[in-house]
Amino acid sequence: MQDYLPSVDFLIGGVVVGLILAGVSAYFKRRKLYIIVPKLFSHSELSSSGQVIELNVRNKGARTEEDIRVALNPKLSYEVIASTLPGLTVSHGGVIHIQRLSKSEEVSIVLTAEQGEFLQDSVLSISSKETKGEIKKKTQDAEDTTALEAAIVLTFVFCLCLR
Asked: Could you list the residue ranges that cross the membrane (predicted)?
């Protein structure tokens, strides 16, 4: 009867492998919400006293993000000129509201900022109903590195299995 019971080492190994796989799965399903301020235009025919700004909001996560809010410097006045997503609004307090972004979706927003100078630091935060996003200065900072991450994790798991 005792010959049919698995050893303690086998049970511990199974639990460890299960935890590693659960961690890897959670890592790749994590939420990734970014805002990038790639371009600040100091001269424009649209506004003689302000600036034209381009913002990119990206959902690089595996889930849809809803009720996205981008907080900008409240001392400035903003007006949306164009965007790649309809239904985008900017409140008087400098908060951009985006209803939802599907996974891997990106929206570009072009707006004017008046009554002061808009700097890269004028983007204060980005958040959704479920997560707080990150502010990036360059497009390359937010590029998807999932293939590299997957290779590193799989190499780690493979090395553990060889032991």
From this structure: 6-28
Pairing of strands 134-136, 33-41: parallel
CB atoms within 10 A of CB 112: 20
Q: Which of 138, 59, 156, 143 is nearest to 104 (CA)?
A: 59
Q: Could you tell me the two tokens for 7?
A: 């050893």
pLDDT under 70: residue ranges of the chain: 1-3, 26-31, 44, 47, 138-150, 160-163
Q: For the segment 119-143, what is each residue's pLDDT rounded down to a tens digit?
A: 888 899 999 998 898 888 766 555 5
- pTM listed for this prediction: 0.71
Q: Is the dihedral of CA 113, 114, 118, 124 positive or negative?
A: negative
Contact 58, 34 (CB under 8 A): yes
